[in-house]
Amino acid sequence: MNSFLTSTNKHGHNQIKICVSGAAETGHCGLNALEKAKELGREIARQGLILVTGATTGFPLWVTMGLKEIGGISIGISPAASEKEHVEVYKLPLDYLDLVIYTGFGYAGRDILLTRSADAKKF
């Protein structure tokens, strides 16, 4: 295992953050895609990494579900300016997220912040 991922970290603010981005609509994904997403989330939690997503539906949501099964930490970066806009206008979930950052920048702006906020990305 890479020592970068397994080193002990005395400072929580220095925990490695991994961004998972993917299909918001999962109807076209393979039969095992959602279970693989949950397993990815569980592995992220086992490694002690922080998950960062676009606070969205689909594959990233399933990763977050797996992560939360074993107590991982999740951050969602929303395109909306508020919780109300996130839910009512964008129709996005709040489930399984420990922290949501409301950007007010729409999807394009959210995506820039999403990728810049993480130490590693998985698409």
Instruction: Examine the secondary-structure arrangement and name the CATH architecture of the domain at 14-23 and 48-122.
Output: 3-Layer(aba) Sandwich
Radius of gyration: 14 Å
The shape is globular
Count every helix, treating DSSP H or I runs of 4 or more residues as helices. Answer: 5
Low-confidence stretches: none
Quaternary status of these chains? single chain
Q: How many strands, which pairing sense, and closed or not: the largest β-sheet?
A: 5 strands, parallel
CATH topology of the domain at 14-23 and 48-122: Rossmann fold
Number of strands: 5
Overall residue-averaged pLDDT value? 90
Descriptive labels:
123 residues; alpha/beta; 17% strand
3D architecture notes:
- This protein is an alpha/beta fold and 123 residues long.
- The chain has a domain at 14-23 and 48-122: Rossmann fold (3-Layer(aba) Sandwich).
- It contains five helices and five strands, in the order H-E-H-E-H-E-H-E-H-E.
- It has a five-stranded parallel sheet with strand order 4-3-2-1-5.
- Helix 3 links the parallel strand 2 (50-53) and strand 3 (73-78).
- Helix 2 packs across helix 3.
- It is globular, with a radius of gyration of 14 Å.
- The two termini are 21 Å apart.
